[in-house]
Amino acid sequence: MQRPSRFPMERDLFAVSSFRTFAARIRPALGDGSQVLIASHVTRMALRVGSSLIVTRLLAPEAYGVIGIVNSIAYILGMVSDMGLRSYVIRHENGGDEAMQTVWTVRLIRNSILFAIMFFGAGIFADLYNSPEVTLAIRVCAFPFLLDGLCSLSINLTERNRGVIRLTAIDFAKFLTMMLTTIVAAYFLRTYWAIVIAMLVSSVFVLIASYTLLKGPPIRFRLDPEHVRDLWKFWRIIIPASMITILMTQANTVVMARYFPIAELGKFTIASTLAMAAGGLISEYVIRVFMPRFAAANRENPETAKDVYYDAKRNIVLLLAFGVGGLLGGGELLVRILYNDQYLGAGLYLSLLCLRLLGQLYGEPVQQAVVTKGFVRVALHANMIRLCWIMLAGFAAYILAGPLALVAALCLAELSAVPYLLWQLKRFGLLRLKEETFILGAAAAGAAIGFACYAGVEALIAAGIIPNF
Q1: Is residue 310 a contact partner of residue 434, using CB atoms and an 8 Å limit?
Q2: Cα–Cα dist 361/365, whole Å
Q3: Which residues, including other chains, have CB under 8 Å from residue 94's CB and lie 6 or more apart?
Q4: Mean pLDDT throughout 313-330?
Q5: In 23, 131, 247, 395, which residue has its Cα 20 to 30 A from 408's Cα atom?
Q6: DSSP letter at 393?
Q7: Under 8 Å CB-to-CB from 421, ≥6 apart: which residues?
Q8: In sequence order, what are the residues at sequence separation of 6 or more whose Cβ sits closer than 8 angstroms to the Cβ of residue 304?
Q9: What is the mean pLDDT of the chain?
Q10: pLDDT value at position 11?
Q11: Which of 99, 202, 107, 95 is nearest to 158 (CA)?
């Protein structure tokens, strides 16, 4: 006799229940999600290496130079109007729907304005970079601003609620989508338009995921006066700090575009892409794992904040410092392994950019912790110190040694604010100097090993023991 039709449904329900039971069992083993975050980034870096081996053989260095210009313009516009909305959502007292709807509305207005500026001002921007041929690419790359503005705030609220694992899975899926799109488009187009198309596909993916894969507040156009005033108190400090950040992070690209051939800018863009992979891991760890944990501890029991500050970041930051040091010492070896002869020389730029990453490792946790403590101006003050460094050391480097020395001085700007940030940490009773010195020690060890590997390979090639590659 045939069984009733309800059994397939029961089997499906049992399967769902079993999956939830399995997820509940393994979740404690995943801890705060930092292991998943790091594993995801390491996997993405490995996949990025593989995709780079393919794409760099399909595209010329000039293609990366064009993308470097486009990304620089988009970054500058984004930072000029940066309101710190991501940090604002995470540190907000309750994260209620009305406040979040106001944040969403403000972001939509801001991004619509940025889209208009980039789209209609594309010709002006291209002339500023002395590259009128990239006008159309700049215009097309304005659309991600609109797509980002339409996204739900579910991603930010999930960060606030420490949903690291789910966000990491979505980021990984986005990366795979963009990587595959880039490879396929590069195979058929053989121009920088392959990367432009992949950027648009990535933005569409995030838009869809924010509404379908995560839970967020109801979307409604709202400008609540009380919440707008609260936002203004926050972003009137953040915006000046962000404008200085533009100078620090994008001046290198501007210098390269003005004083070096576009192929050399392409090498710098390749190095920046590798450095951004490490920098992205640092930023995502701080904003998704460290800051929500520290902010929650500060809200619930401020007396435990000092212990949480170091407990939440100690092992991961030391591991990251060791990795950054390895790139600092062995950057040229990594480029030699990954790319063909067209890209030799990018390793020097990668090593210089790792100095910025080291400053980021010190600075980002401090800034987020001190902002959480209520001193929002810390980012502005730190950036003013960095700006002074750029004006003094950068000018001297350019006069004495030329544009390349200026690039090196700009990469050192991030480190110039570390003493001030450590002093702020001490002022709020959070500093443990011994813990901070461990970061430098881990980076030095990584740099020594990285350089030893590079020197060893060069010696083996010179002796004819291994072939040149």
Answers
A1: no
A2: 7
A3: none
A4: 91
A5: 131
A6: I
A7: 362, 363, 366, 367, 370, 378, 382
A8: 297
A9: 83
A10: 53
A11: 95
Averaged pLDDT, 312-326: 90
Compute the distance between CA of residue 49 and CA of residue 141 in angstroms, rounded to an integer: 24
Distance from C-alpha of 138 to C-alpha of 67, rounded to nearest angstrom: 9
Tokens of 332: 């040229």
**pLDDT tens digits, one per residue of 192-204:** 999 999 999 999 9
Q: Is the pLDDT of residue 16 over 60?
A: no
- Tell me how crowded residue 123 is: count the other CB atoms within 10 A of its CB: 13
Q: What's the longest Cα–Cα distance across the chain?
A: 93
Mean pLDDT on 423-441: 91
In the chain, % of residues over pLDDT 90: 29
- Amino acid 468: pLDDT: 73
Task: Tell me the C-alpha distance between 319 and 325, whole Å.
Answer: 10
Query: Looking at this protein, which amino acid is placed at residue 64?
Result: Y
Rg of the chain in Å (alpha carbons) = 23
What span, in angstroms and rounded, lies between the C-alpha atoms of 244 and 88? 20
Q: Distance between CA atoms of 87 and 368, rounded to whole angstroms?
A: 8
Residue type, 108: L
C-alpha 409/C-alpha 390 separation (Å) is: 7
Question: How does residue 13 score in pLDDT terms, banded at 50, 70 and 90?
Answer: very low
Q: Where are the domains of the chain?
A: 31-462
pLDDT of res. 200: 96
Instruction: Please give the average per-residue pLDDT across 438-461, as a whole number.
Output: 92
Are 186 and 70 contacting, i.e. CB atoms less than 8 angstroms apart?
Answer: no
Phi and psi, residue 432, nearest 5° = -125, 100
Indicate the SS3 state at residue 349.
helix
Q: Evaluate whether 415 touches 393 at the Cβ level (below 8 Å).
A: no
C-alpha 421/C-alpha 359 separation (Å) is 11
